[in-house]
């Protein structure tokens, strides 16, 4: 279900201010982990939450409530009020001196209903509801800047929009959600957050000496020629949201081999389907290497002893790789096998190997050519962020996940399809001439067999 086109509107934003911790905090320098400070983490991740008016909150200003709770949350989470500094070997550390996070309040002549049934990213006109773009001349610097930017936009109906930009070096999605929920608890009157934060970055420091023990294809360019996707101008790209509801998931299971049909997660089914369909639609040469790279979270794994309250980056990119000819010539089961194998490869040893590689190789960026990068945020619980006004109407990424290069990365999120059924939604972005082919490929793989 799509959001409605917004009417013409204006946003009147106040002067941004620094919000500092509400009480004295330690003055110290804290090192990020060697997973935190890789090149691929050095950007700001944007999120948006939309709330309706709550009559019980009449007379209360959401911007003031959130600002006060934010200052209190920054006491236990004081590193988030610091600034990054780069040391020898491109190592990032946080200078903790209570410098503060950036905050702005704004007003928009819109209502929550004007956004219609917005279910998936990108959020309509998201640029107007986050404090600022942190990109300078095509680069997104993170050193010496606030680590968090927040804008609270009051709506004409009494609702509001909470927009944030978090430096990914210091938090991943679950870590950012942990902090936001701490702010919510304080905004709703709690004396302290229910989860005490833990720094714990030593968990993912390189060994001495560093000894990468895996090939880490995610940081090596694939074999083959130039990627047509990376050379396609933005104006020649088109974005279409694809919904994988009960019918589509059932169709994918029918196309999977009987031996793994019942053991495949929705993520594995959808990722394999999109990777195969996308590769066919882009027309890569049969001998060219193609990859699916996706985030595997280490939280909750018995072999990764994370301290309770850890809010740093605790994931790795795992890679499924093959040639375009083998992927498109094989059935869905072939792609599924590669996805499942890559997913199971991420262990604590693998994460330590990534940290070692970051130090040895100068903290490189992951490879992008002929690579489809996926982040599954469908279980992040974005809508549960409640500042006292109730559950969010929309909660999730501000953008579709494309980043600076359209079509390379995607978020998998959860929403409802046109029938009101819970679905996995993926906002696919491809060259215009490839989208029709992609749709046909997906339809063939999701069609239920008679």
UniProtKB/TrEMBL annotation:
Keywords: Transferase. Transmembrane segments: none annotated. Coiled coil: none annotated. InterPro entries: CAT-like_dom_sf, Plant_acyltransferase. GO terms for molecular function: acyltransferase activity, transferring groups other than amino-acyl groups; hydroxycinnamoyltransferase activity. PANTHER family: ACYL TRANSFERASE 4, OS05G0315700 PROTEIN. Belongs to the plant acyltransferase family. This is Os06g0710700 protein. It comes from Oryza sativa subsp. japonica.
